Design the sequence.
């Protein structure tokens, strides 16, 4: 929220602050900044309008509840899942799978990506393989993962790992490659060894971009959740949705989907905030 | 000249790529630079200025010929040379102070001596009050001053500069040129300065090397006999204009040649 700052108040000194009068006509100018307040509100207005429309359509009986239950039914379903403790249990199980799956992918993808970004030999050796594998449909790998990892949590985690690792490795490689080569040259001129340059120049230079890769890839891990919980899962947010399909419980399906989206959004936000405080130097001024 | 040369480049050539992608970037450069001399290298874009400087810096290996610094062949980068790169190339995650201190890490000085040197150089390039700022928070001219301080603080005897002021506006550029000349006079370093700005090349240097392009080689060398210390209004003197006309004509000829080559391709 922009407060009336003392800077603006002092600078005004009897003059008219044109930012006020520009506000209305300036909203649709190409690449033109708009007030923060309007920017944020716009993001709220769209979902609110959609929910109202949804409400109207269901209240007027334009579609059968089987296809689209009313928002109230979704809220009731949410309340039911919260009070019976199902939601917390599902969320805990799924979050655990997401964290372990993503983390194991990241722990492997970051060093491999860094090696590929710095040494042509590793890039030449691994890039063709990884580029091929990342186009293979993860759903098709379910039978194999069951053979390899059984039907317990390991199999779910393996699916999440496979869905994340290959993409992430290539992205980290790119993050490392796009740093300014002159930074490396400066390090060489200043007498640093290759290992020192790797740890003290290349890594910190690439770290903000790698962090962003982490943020984006964990979002993808969330999108693989339903696929991961497709087989032999007792619980989990994805499992709940698949079960609901069998009973045509549309409210459960819609609530579950929205809830996964919400958790994804929260993860994204957490990464953004942490990144901003970890890498203060990337902020202008 | 009786003094041993600071830089001696003999028949230096560079080929990039291999097989069908082979590209002769520099055909042959012979160049001798005396200690404390200020030499500018000018030429059209792509004529091999950065490549040559990188070879002197030990960052790129010459394909042919030898480069000697103080009589010793260059085998890699080293702290006898300071490098200011095209673009700023600062360590964005370190403060102004941190960037300059980092350059001293491999020196044997004590902690207080290092701190004192950093303080002195920050003062010299006029950045007092910005010790704790991050590069992102500085203007282009200020960043370039950090880069100069970082390249000088460990007292190299040879300063290699690759279009250091290319991204600056005319006024800031003028200030930086005067700052550089002052630093050069105070610290008795040899400077190899790459630029594509003819006026800048002449204003700063004792000698200007004009490179021909595709492949790179020396087209012309001229000695700048203008008195020092130089004031900025020297650029309006007849001597200066005459030097400038000569270099401009050379560069124009090279540019036209490159453009017509481009048409054939
Ligand atoms: N690593 C490389 N691999 C292949 N070709 C290269 C490489 N570096 C430079 N070249 C080529 O060598 C030639 C000289 O490049 P160089 O960067 O030295 O030019 P320059 O004179 O510094 O140009 P500018 O004024 O644009 O900086 C160019 O044609 C460039 O394309
Ligand atoms: Mg260049």
Sequence:
């Amino acid at each position: 929220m922009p407060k009336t700052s003392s800077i603006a108040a002092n600078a005004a000194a009897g003059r008219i602050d044109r930012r006020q009068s520009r506000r209305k006509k300036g909203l649709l100018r190409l690449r033109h900044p708009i007030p923060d307040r309007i920017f944020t509100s716009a993001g709220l207005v769209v979902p609110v309008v959609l929910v109202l429309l949804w409400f109207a359509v269901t209240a007027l009986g334009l579609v059968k509840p089987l296809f689209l239950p009313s928002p109230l039914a979704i809220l009731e379903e949410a309340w039911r899942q919260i009070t019976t403790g199902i939601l917390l249990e599902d969320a805990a199980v799924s979050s655990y799978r997401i964290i372990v799956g993503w983390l194991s992918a990241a722990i492997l993808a970051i060093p491999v990506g860094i090696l590929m970004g710095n040494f042509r030999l590793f890039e030449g050796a691994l890039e063709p393989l990884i580029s091929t594998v990342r186009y293979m449909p993860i759903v098709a790998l379910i039978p194999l993962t069951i053979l390899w990892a059984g039907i317990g949590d390991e199999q779910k985690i393996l699916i999440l790992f496979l869905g994340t690792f290959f993409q992430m490795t290539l992205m980290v490689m790119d993050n490392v490659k796009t740093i300014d080569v002159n930074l490396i040259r400066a390090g060489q001129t200043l007498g640093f060894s290759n290992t020192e340059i790797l740890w003290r120049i290349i890594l910190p230079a690439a770290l903000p971009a790698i962090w962003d890769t982490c943020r984006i890839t964990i979002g993808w891990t969330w999108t693989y959740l339903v696929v991961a919980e497709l087989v032999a899962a007792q619980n989990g947010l994805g499992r709940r949705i698949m079960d609901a399909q069998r009973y045509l419980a549309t409210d459960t399906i819609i609530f579950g989907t929205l809830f996964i989206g919400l958790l994804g959004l929260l993860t994204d936000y957490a990464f953004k905030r942490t990144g901003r405080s970890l890498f203060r130097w990337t902020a202008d001024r | 000249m009786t003094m041993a040369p600071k830089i001696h480049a003999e028949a230096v050539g560079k080929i990039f790529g291999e097989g069908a992608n082979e590209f002769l970037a520099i055909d042959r450069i012979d160049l001798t630079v005396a200690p404390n001399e200020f030499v500018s290298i000018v030429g059209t874009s792509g004529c091999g200025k950065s490549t040559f400087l990188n070879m002197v810096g030990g960052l790129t290996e010459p394909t042919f010929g030898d480069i000697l610094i103080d009589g010793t062949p260059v085998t890699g980068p080293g702290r006898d040379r300071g490098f200011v790169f095209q673009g700023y190339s600062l360590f964005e995650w370190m403060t102004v102070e941190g960037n300059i201190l980092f350059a001293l890490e491999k020196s044997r000085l004590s902690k207080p001596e290092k701190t004192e040197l950093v303080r002195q150089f920050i003062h010299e390039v006029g950045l007092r009050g910005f010790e704790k700022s991050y590069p992102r928070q500085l203007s282009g001219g200020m960043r370039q001053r950090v880069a100069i301080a970082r390249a000088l603080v460990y007292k190299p005897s040879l300063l290699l500069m690759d279009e250091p002021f290319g991204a600056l506006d005319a006024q800031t550029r003028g200030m930086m040129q005067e700052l550089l000349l002052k630093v050069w006079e105070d610290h008795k370093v040899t400077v190899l300065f790459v630029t594509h700005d003819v006026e800048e090349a002449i204003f700063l240097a004792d000698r200007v090397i004009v490179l021909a392009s595709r492949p790179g080689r020396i087209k012309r060398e001229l000695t700048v006999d203008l008195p020092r210390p130089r004031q900025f209004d020297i650029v309006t003197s007849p001597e200066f204009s005459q030097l400038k006309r000569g270099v401009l004509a050379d560069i124009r000829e090279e540019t036209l040649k490159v453009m017509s080559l481009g048409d054939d391709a």
